[in-house]
């Protein structure tokens, strides 16, 4: 998969065609998931295709989605896991990886926020198991022919229907110099410095990560060969959403570090305090060798 291209083109779809995703694609995503690694390799995450979109939409209306506004889609995928400490970090990381795979296979999607108590969702959907409902996404084909973001490649033949307006989703994101500090909190790194350190590409793509309400809560401190991550806590956004947002950006950083041939991995240390991080931020961990 060309992750840079996928990340660049990724966006939330909220208006779907009335067309189902073929079973074969779901199987391909499922196979991909069994070959993928996560931050907590021992945590098992299950994917469940919710086939009857109409039924799911009505069952979850008023309950799932920002302010209870459910997104209408032909199908959904529910992700469940054991309710272990910080499990949502891994769920964010894992689900976003599946979203990139779906996109690679031509499928559009959108995250849908669910209540902290996943039991409510399971009850509404008549699912009886001992797992925690941890995340939900809508899947299908984008109905909005105007906003989509395929790039134009010269020399290729595009029909009018395939031609989509180019809109780079970077426009709605913070610039990298607003999210990376050097050595200590508040000491913003300039883009030039990031270029000098050959880290500009990593953050250029990282800021494209989706986040709840597009609030972009991530801040990094680059110190020596460690990259520390903190997530802002915002009123109206629960702890689980903070951790999902953390997991998503951790996936993007890791993919881009790998692309830049920087070896390392994420170390989650949510129990530890980190000096200098303001109280309204939550320290998640660091990336290093
Ligand atoms: C954990 C999570 C939950 C989300 N829940 C919803 C939701 O319930 N409804 C919605 O319309 N968008 C939801 N989103 C999508 C974000 O609003 C979206 O990613 C952000 O605005 C950036 O836009 P983009 O994904 O098109 O780049 C969610 C995103 C995340 C990461």
UniProtKB/TrEMBL annotation:
Residue ranges annotated for the Putative nitroreductase TM1586 domain, each copy included: 4-256
Pfam families from the UniProt entry: TM1586_NiRdase (PF14512)
InterPro entries to which the protein is assigned, alphabetical: Nitroreductase-like, TM1586_NiRdase
GO molecular function: oxidoreductase activity
Keyword vocabulary terms for this entry: Oxidoreductase
Family of this protein: Belongs to the nitroreductase family.
Protein name in UniProt: Putative nitroreductase TM1586 domain-containing protein
């Amino acid at each position: 998969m060309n992750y840079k291209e996928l990340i660049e083109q990724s966006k939330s779809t909220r208006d779907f065609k009335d067309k189902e995703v073929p079973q074969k694609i779901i199987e391909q995503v499922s196979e991909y998931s069994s070959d993928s690694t996560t931050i907590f390799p021992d945590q098992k995450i299950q994917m469940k295709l919710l086939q009857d979109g109409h039924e799911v939409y009505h069952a979850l209306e008023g309950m799932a989605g920002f302010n209870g506004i459910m997104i209408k889609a032909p199908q959904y995928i529910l992700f469940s896991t054991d309710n272990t400490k910080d499990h949502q970090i891994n769920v964010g990381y894992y689900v976003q990886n599946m979203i990139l795979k779906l996109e690679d296979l031509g499928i559009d999607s959108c995250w849908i926020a669910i209540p902290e108590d996943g039991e409510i969702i399971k009850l509404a959907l008549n699912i009886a198991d001992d797992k925690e409902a941890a995340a939900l996404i809508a899947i299908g084909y984008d109905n909005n022919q105007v906003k989509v973001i395929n790039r134009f490649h010269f020399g290729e033949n595009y029909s009018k229907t395939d031609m989509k307006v180019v809109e780079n989703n970077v426009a709605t994101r913070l610039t990298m110099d607003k999210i990376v500090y050097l050595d200590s909190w508040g000491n913003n790194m300039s883009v030039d410095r990031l270029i000098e350190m050959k880290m500009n590409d990593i953050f250029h793509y990282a800021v494209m990560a989706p986040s709840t309400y597009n609030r972009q809560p991530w801040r990094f401190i680059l110190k020596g060969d460690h990259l520390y991550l903190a997530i802002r806590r915002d009123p109206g956004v629960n702890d689980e959403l903070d951790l999902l947002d953390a997991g998503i950006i951790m996936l993007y950083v890791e993919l881009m570090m790998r692309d830049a041939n920087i070896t390392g991995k994420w170390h989650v240390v949510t129990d530890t305090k980190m000096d200098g991080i303001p109280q309204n931020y939550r320290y998640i961990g660091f990336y290093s060798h």
